[in-house]
Amino acid sequence: MNDKKVCQGCGVLLQDENVLQEGYTTNLENDICQRCFRMKNYGEYQSVAKTNEEYMKILQGVAETKDLVLYIADLLNLEKTIEDIRSIISNKMILVLNKKDVLPKSVKEEKIIQYFEKENHLFEEVIVISTFKNYNIDYLLKRIKYYQTSRNVYVVGHTNAGKSSLINKLIHNYSDSGQELTMSPLPSTTLNTIHIVIDEHLTLIDTPGLVDAGSILNHVDEKMVKKISARKEIKPRTYQLRKNQSIIIEDLIRIDYVEGEKNSFTLFISNDLKVRRLLNVFNNEDLKDKNKITYQVKYDEDLVISGLGFVKIVNKGVIDLYMDKNIDSFLRKSLI
Ligand SMILES: Nc1nc2c(ncn2[C@@H]2O[C@H](COP(=O)(O)OP(=O)(O)OP(=O)(O)O)[C@@H](O)[C@H]2O)c(=O)[nH]1
Ligand SMILES: [Mg+2]
After folding, report:
1. What CATH code is assigned to 45-212?
2. What is the pTM of this model?
3. What is the pLDDT of residues 202-235, one digit of tens each?
4. I want to staple 23 with a disulfide (CB 3.0 to 4.6 A). Which of 12, 47, 252, 333 is the partner?
5. Ligand 1 proximity of 307 Cβ (cutoff 6 Å)
6. Is the separation of the CB atoms in 243 and 206 below 8 Å?
7. CATH 3.40.50.300 residue ranges in the chain?
8. pLDDT tens digit string along 38-77?
9. Is ligand 1 within 6 A of the CB of residue 187?
């Protein structure tokens, strides 16, 4: 038995002994595990619960090198504190903001980059891309070549940011390798580091993502995961709300506007999600059994719901947010 061979899709050690364990394949001659095979060929996604412990070890390993790091983030799901990564690794780093295609075209790239200006000293450069649209990928490769300190370049970030998708795009555009990493809408698709040789000067190293336990994707079923994952340009939905009116997203989230002047709420979430408005909060008890968080919203802020997207709120006011207690949310200065 060959105990060194790893799955080319997700990076786990291949094994043919226990069908219930990671890395299972019926035949060790195969290049990918059964889970990757099913995801690739049938779109049958199988989620794996991961903790951040192993990932921390991987990041610490990266920190011991002097190699360039690409930190990939999903524009619709930016982490609360992107600079946290700096407490773990101090390598040269490019911040790559992926999935530009889902943001409305009216949102200008310069504006997004400007938003990150305060973070600028942390990164060699901030680059906005879309893997789906092949947007700015050539430029990214040029900058990788410019900043790289050795052949190896690590690709890190939260789960689902699109790390493996980006590497597949780079393989497709610039290498003859037939390797294809597994990608999926579920978090924790990649399970271990995987080395991908692009050319003699560049090897990309894919990593599993940092798990966001508070992402809504970890608390809904697979059908809902697909609905939440935007694949097309988002059509922002604006609701003018008066005090005591409310917005309900699917049967997941309720936002009651409890105090303030007439206000404008614009939803930047997948077009597939159903939204309804209540004209009077007192006539309807839907979702009020969920956990409630009260937010004092300042002028021009976004309410971010982890994994889902965000709600731009123009004026100050008070809102009550009802949803599963395990889902994270926070306020930030408006991105757009
Ligand atoms: N709209 C859009 N979706 C993207 C883009 N790139 C990746 N995705 C989607 O994002 C989801 C996650 O992609 P992956 O490449 O598996 O992400 P990852 O960062 O490798 O995830 P893990 O391996 O779980 O850490 C998939 O549903 C992709 O189709 C993009 O440029 N635009
Ligand atoms: Mg991956």
Report:
1. 3.40.50.300
2. 0.92
3. 999 999 988 888 999 999 998 999 999 999 999 9
4. 12
5. no
6. no
7. 45-212
8. 988 888 877 777 778 888 889 999 999 999 999 999 999 9
9. yes
